[in-house]
Design a protein that fits this description.
Chain lengths: 202, 325
């Protein structure tokens, strides 16, 4: 397949910007409804999860299509996921908490604890995504970046622990995540899902 | 009973802001926010114009003694942003899908410990009474709140006609259960065991604040707000104010309520608004009074019993409200 890389990269970049663009448009047009802080927080959180899932789709897509272009945009999509997660956290702190009640919120509420742990795991991934860091970490880079697996699992827990009554949406996302992890286990061996452990044993 | 002395929760004597003025102001502020955030030159694509009030006009007597003077939440927000899980968990789902429910004709089964059980047509339940308008605060357990002008009748007046007997310690309410009309009841992954169920202790139900609403903003209830008849218990979290009621039962044992059955550690039977009792997911100390803004969030301190303590605190004398939450 000969898909030119640069236009593809630009396309993926623009697509990743769409959720934010739509949100800004809603803000500009005042069409976020009567509780915009809550709506913005939820929208950003959902976009972050979706982009995390898209990131996890890149490796399988590359295998299915025999095209490495997916892998080449993987870092960018992952960084967008982190970017949306960071905005999500900022929105929560600013619009929902108003920077009050921080201690109780981050120590007592299970869904917040899961979300925070997920975010903490994503920080080193974003920080080590540059070419220089990839080179510096060498063969330790891959096991480190497997932290995305526990991270996405924690995000899912974060999601389902805030469900009020209907969990249809959470079940659907959960099935997709399980599929993405299971297919790796199937292809590369289940040990390939364990983060941080050096890859030498095999 | 018409003009009562103003209780403490009725705040100041200034008039409630007329809706048109309110909406103009809101539109103006929305424009400012848009300009601030998007920079100059971005046109506002959608004009959040006032929604015409739908429904049949009702005749009613205003009850200033039972009404707050706080700014009312605009009609469009009251009717397009709420929870009614029979139609979905999104705040816009009720407005979008409640039309699939038919509310005419409507009848209510009355049963249990009373001398006049039976199946009553809606008209027979409400016709003998004069409608009142009461502007109540509504506080959702999710930490947002509204101010809504309800039209209806005191719950006590309706319940007394069924002549509850001495064994009637509690009154139980039930929402319509019809998956054909209520799409979220068809969901495979709902943790609610339909129908939605609620209840009050008899003295709570007979309290002068307890209200059976048939309308809001002067007209019959929109379906998404619980047409044709819903409870309004303003000192309790919103989920106690059960919508689209089809059954009323007087009973000796305390009924189990829907939310209590799903998550007893989070939702109790009493569910009194109480900033001192934390919810595992949301702090109850403050609330966002809607409509709220991004740059000017409308935060306010939550008051115990939603500010209706003078009327209801005596009901819970001697009870440990951290245990009976
Ligand atoms: C850093 C700590 C985090 C905090 C404090 C936080 C907080 C929140 C809050 C308050 C909500 C709304 C809950 C509600 O009212 O129902 C929410 C929803 C959500 N968050 Fe987070 N979050 C965090 C991290 C994350 C991360 C890292 C992700 C994904 C990568 C994420 C994805 C989501 C999703 C998918 C939702 C549900 C949105 C919806 O309801 O549609 N969160 N989060």
């Amino acid at each position: 397949m000969t898909i030119p890389m640069l236009p593809f990269r630009i396309l993926v970049f623009l697509l990743s910007c769409v959720p934010l663009a739509l949100l800004l448009l809603d803000i500009a047009t005042g069409s976020l409804g009567p509780d915009p802080g809550q709506t913005v927080t939820e929208t950003l959180g959902l976009s972050a999860l979706q982009l995390l899932i898209v990131t996890l789709f890149m490796t399988p897509l590359a295998r299915w299509t025999h095209w490495s272009g997916w892998i080449k945009v993987r870092r960018m999509v992952g960084l967008f996921a982190f970017f949306y997660a960071a905005l999500h956290l900022m929105a929560f702190l600013q619009f929902i908490l108003g920077w009050t009640d921080l201690w109780a919120t981050f120590t007592k509420r299970p869904y917040i604890i899961f979300g925070s742990l997920a975010f903490l795991l994503l920080i080193p991934l974003a920080a080590t995504s540059t070419k220089a860091m990839v080179r510096r970490l060498g063969r330790r880079w891959k096991p480190l970046h497997r932290l995305i697996y526990p991270a996405v699992a924690l995000v899912w827990l974060h999601f389902i622990f805030q469900a009020r009554s209907d969990i249809t949406e959470m079940v659907i996302y959960g099935l997709v995540v399980v599929f993405l992890l299971a297919i790796r286990g199937y292809w590369f061996g289940w040990h390939s899902l364990v983060p941080l452990r050096a890859a030498k044993r095999r | 009973m018409l003009i009562k002395k103003r209780p403490s929760w009725a705040l100041s004597h200034s008039d409630v802001t007329p809706e048109s003025v309110y909406l103009d102001r809101r539109r103006f502020m929305g424009g400012m926010v848009a300009a601030a955030l998007a920079g100059a030159g971005v046109p506002r694509l959608v004009d959040a114009a006032a929604l015409p009030i739908q429904g049949e006009s009702l005749e009613f007597t205003a009850m200033p003694g039972f009404s707050t003077d706080e700014e009312k939440t605009p009609y469009e927000d009251v009717t397009r942003y709420n929870n009614f899980y029979e139609f979905g968990t999104g705040k816009g789902d009720p407005a979008q899908y409640a039309d699939e429910m038919s509310v005419d004709p409507w009848s209510v089964i009355v049963e249990g410990e009373c001398d006049r059980p039976g199946t009553y047509a809606l008209e027979d339940l409400v016709r003998p009474h004069d409608y009142q308008e009461r502007i109540y605060r509504l506080r959702c357990v999710e930490a947002w709140s509204m101010v809504i002008p309800w039209i209806g009748i005191p719950l006590a007046d309706m319940l007394k006609r069924f002549e509850p007997n001495s064994r009637a310690k509690y009154v139980y309410f039930e929402t319509l259960h019809d998956p054909d009309q209520m799409r979220a009841q068809r969901s495979l992954f709902s943790t609610i065991d339909w129908p939605y169920q609620e209840g009050l202790r008899m003295d709570e139900a007979m309290n002068e604040l307890s209200f059976m609403a048939v309308g809001l903003y002067g007209k019959t209830l929109p379906k998404q707000n619980g047409a044709p008849m819903r409870l309004v218990v303003p000192w309790k979290y919103g989920f106690k104010s059960i919508k689209s009621i089809v059954k009323i039962r007087f009973q000796e044992e305390r009924p189990k309520t829907t939310w209590e059955m799903i998550a007893p550690q989070e939702y109790g039977f009493y569910a009194n608004v109480n900033p001192e009792v934390d919810h595992p997911r949301w702090s109850q100390k403050r609330e966002r009074r809607l409509p709220s803004g991004l740059l000017s969030p409308n935060w306010m301190e939550t008051r115990k019993f939603n500010g209706y303590g003078e009327q209801v605190a005596h009901l819970y004398k001697g009870m440990d409200l951290t245990k009976y939450y």
